[in-house]
Write a structure and sequence with these properties.
about 425 residues, two-stranded antiparallel ribbon, 13 helices, nine-stranded mixed sheet
């Protein structure tokens, strides 16, 4: 798709967003987007280009408003027919006075959307009103998508975006993959709303429920949700995201098991821009449930291959979290998970980071009780052809993203600095 076509598509979506109801922070709509058959569509802009206002062979001249310099009723040959401009082309617009700044000559309040300082509403409220550019650009909207990855099998992903996401070029998208459910990414507490934060930075953010998790396809036996099956499902998600949002490449933010998967997705430099890896095992495990022989015995002998993770086990990772974060995370991230997500880590390493061909960032918590900083440093050294960037989160334990406010802020600062490179 050409930049011109993407521009018109963005305008069309912008019109939809401007007329849609506003969502305050933390609110969400859950509109299902059925992705079935998306790979069979040849040109996602075909309907757009069929408009009588556009002619692909001569984009600039097909519209009756633009076929020649004098055709538009707003502009004649000497550029003075526009009713908003007077003879000198500067001052006739009733919203602007002579200084072309923010109001009229009596003190700057002619524009009904701006007060005297150009920032508020006409009643003097210092906060921007509902029509301000900032709030329009940063309203967060959500969609849920069921992405097909095999016949009769779909992956559930949750999308967060803003109008800023549509107006950012080149388009940016981030896929969020974790050991936990997708709902654990956008925690409804300030500083922990990952999907919303990325959307306000201009990303289309997609949090993923892996195979066997939540509303994604669950095989009859959880042992069949293998590492390779998860990779194929995530590769389908990458293709879908690029197609659905016209994104050149996708950044992947992986955590735990999701980070291990991300190392292998990083082999695809055609679809992936970069990866962030946090809390994943490589060669050394010093703690955690999977290191307990009793836990291993239970998992390996479970008849249906699904393990129930109670809130008490989830809470083991929440010692540093604020109470409201800990209560939400423990309540929403407990449940049945496929055994294959755990048994894969019984023999380390279970993936090869040297296959990566895109930029990588490894973030390690200093006080991680599951895998030591030395393991993450070795992962960074073995990543790709020249290694990955390596960052330590000082003074925090595993799960910094949902841990202490300072730890979460440090984590996201490192992530965003990397993504903006």
């Amino acid at each position: 798709m050409s930049p011109m076509q993407s521009f018109f598509a963005s305008l069309a979506m912008g019109a939809v967003l401007l007329t849609a109801p506003a969502l305050e922070a933390g609110e969400a709509t859950d509109i299902k987007a059925d992705g079935a058959g998306f790979e069979d569509v040849q040109d996602p802009a075909a309907d757009l280009l069929a408009s009588p206002w556009l002619d692909v062979s001569a984009l600039a001249k097909a519209s009756p408003w633009i076929d020649s310099p004098g055709a538009s009723p707003w502009v004649d040959g000497d550029e003075k027919a526009n009713p908003w401009l007077d003879g000198d082309g500067e001052k006739a617009n009733p919203w602007l006075d002579g200084d072309e700044d923010r109001g009229d000559s009596d003190g700057g309040k002619a524009n009904p959307w701006l007060d005297g300082d150009g920032a508020g509403d006409p009643d003097g409220d210092p906060d921007r009103d509902a029509h301000s550019d900032e709030k329009i650009l940063d309203r967060v909207y959500t969609l849920s998508h069921d992405i097909p990855f095999a016949p009769g099998q779909t992956l559930r992903v949750h999308e967060f975006f803003t109008l800023r996401s549509w107006l950012t070029f080149p388009r940016r998208s981030a896929m969020l993959v974790s050991s936990f459910y997708a709902s654990g990414w956008n925690i409804p507490v300030d500083g922990y709303r990952a999907g919303e934060m990325l959307a306000r930075e201009g990303f289309f953010a997609f949090s993923v429920d892996l195979v066997g998790y939540a509303d994604s396809f669950a095989p009859a036996n959880g042992n069949d949700a293998t590492f390779d099956v998860q990779l194929e499902a995530l590769r389908a998600a990458l293709r879908y995201i690029r197609f659905f949002r016209w994104v050149p490449k996708v950044d992947i933010i992986g955590e735990g098991y999701g980070a291990s998967l991300a190392t292998q997705l990083a082999e695809d430099a055609r679809r992936v821009r970069s990866v962030v890896l946090t809390d994943n095992l490589y060669r050394i495990q010093i703690g955690g449930p999977a290191s307990d022989p009793v836990f291993r015995e239970l998992i390996e002998n479970d008849p249906d291959g699904y393990i129930f993770i109670p809130p008490e086990v989830v809470s083991l990772f929440l010692a540093e979290s604020p109470p409201e974060v800990a209560s939400y995370f423990a309540a929403t991230q407990s449940g049945f998970l496929p055994a294959a997500s755990f048994t894969v880590a019984f023999e380390l390493p279970f993936y090869d980071p040297s296959v990566a061909r895109v930029a990588g960032l490894v973030i390690q918590s200093e006080n991680d009780l599951v895998s030591p900083p030395s393991d993450a440093a070795e992962l960074a050294a073995d990543y790709g052809l020249g290694g990955a960037e390596f960052q330590i989160l000082n003074g925090v334990g595993r799960g910094a993203r949902f841990g202490s406010p300072d730890g979460a802020a440090d984590y996201w600062q490192k992530v965003m600095d990397f993504l903006k490179q």
